[in-house]
Amino acid sequence: MAQLNNWPWRYWAEHRPQETALLVQQQPISWLMLQQQVDALAADFQQQGVQPACGVALCSKNSYPLLLAYLALLQCGARLLPLNPGLPAAMLARLLPDLNIAFVFSPDSLPTLPAELTILSSTERDVGLWQPVPWQPVPWQPQRLATLTLTSGSSGLPKAAAHSYAGHLACAQGVLQRMDFQPSDSWLLSLPLFHVSGQGIVWRWLTAGAQLVLREMQPLADALAGCTHASLVPTQLWRLLSAPQTEHSLKEVLLGGAMIPVELTRQAEAQGIRCWCGYGLTELASTVCAKRADELPGVGLPLHGGEIRLVEQEVWIRSDSLALGYWYQGALLPVTDAEGWFHTRDRGVMAQGELRIIGRLDNQFFSGGEGIQPEEVERVLLAHPQISQVFIVPLDDPEFGQRPVAVADWAGELSLDLLLNWAQDQLANFQRPIALLALPIELKNGGIKISRHRLQQWAAEQWQPTR
Length: 467
Fold this sequence. Notes:
Layout lengths: L7 H8 L4 E5 L2 E4 H17 L7 E5 L4 H12 L3 E5 L5 H7 L5 E5 L12 E2 L25 E6 L9 E5 H12 L9 E3 L7 H13 L2 E4 L5 H4 L5 E4 L1 H9 L9 E4 L6 H9 L3 E8 L4 E7 L8 E2 L3 E6 L2 E6 L5 E4 L2 E3 L8 E10 L2 E7 L4 E3 L2 E3 L1 H8 L5 E11 L3 E10 L5 H7 L13 E3 L13 H11 L5
Parallel strand pairs: 1-10, 3-4, 3-5, 5-6, 9-10, 11-12, 12-13, 25-26
Antiparallel strand pairs: 1-2, 7-8, 8-18, 13-14, 14-15, 16-17, 17-20, 18-19, 20-21, 22-23, 24-25
Helix pairs in contact: 1-2, 2-3, 5-6
């Protein structure tokens, strides 16, 4: 991996100007052309008032114009906040003023945003007709604050984890010391840039000087055509493997977002796809532990530059990829304790020489005085041959306090009785779900993480107990 001493796209434009940097649909774009396009867009933004350290929101689904704006705004030295275009207007009205956002850019129609934001525009240019334009250089400073990425916000408004360029690069370098991603390889941008995992793909591409593939609004199998690498959740890989007569060029896949069934990785490896499972957090710029998938339920050991500690089963992490802080009202609030440890709120143990994540401390609930960790029950049920995805959520019960309900994706005919008979010797009585509900399409959330809170609300509306 190169030692970058310039903006990464400019570094590769200098060292490999005519090599392919991107495939947009099927059209190749060289590193030199990419640099020219980024320079032109950065000049546009500078003329509209974007200065170093000013806050800019980037709001859209993935597209080539969105990626160009991401790189151009970074090159302007902006403090960049990629936003989910599906966030409610009421949340944005409460959130954005505290994040000191002055500008917003979107290639698409904008959601309802606070009126005081200045909307940035870009000059329309045909690919291939871009010419070098004057751009006021902002020096490459790896320790500069680069991005704000929103956390899940499971306990209220999301926080904005502030990462430096060095933090993003440290995460990418750690992953690439495990996975084999060469300059001739290509990684599909399959996850949104407003999610830390999507940005992780971009920074691995920039670190390796390889190829990034953008294909909008295509079925996954079509989008992956010619790609050697991808970041997927297990359900996406299941669908890809089960598609009839699907040829692929995949060499390696980084899996995350849910527990990974052993049978899934067996089938993938049989088709020549090396599977890696990762453990990551927004505050760590994406992946922090990774290993080649095997029969064990752990997530491996920390990437280079990281270390872990278990304190009363809570996972604590120190890493070169750790956020600078949480940005709030013009200042960075600490993400770590006084010794630099980030307290993840994940329960974990060291087992068979690797870290195993038991589940979120926040997810545990009690039924009749017994503690239930949903992820432990899910791990058992996920081994059922018909189930591809399952969640255990608590429902209020006047006698027990709360009871577990299973919400799942499954193939064929499956009833609660059949499932419980299959799991009879693997679950304690208090862990056995009292209902089995089919996971609704509207809650699948586009392939990142499904909200347990929304699942719990939906299950409470669906389930009618027999009295």
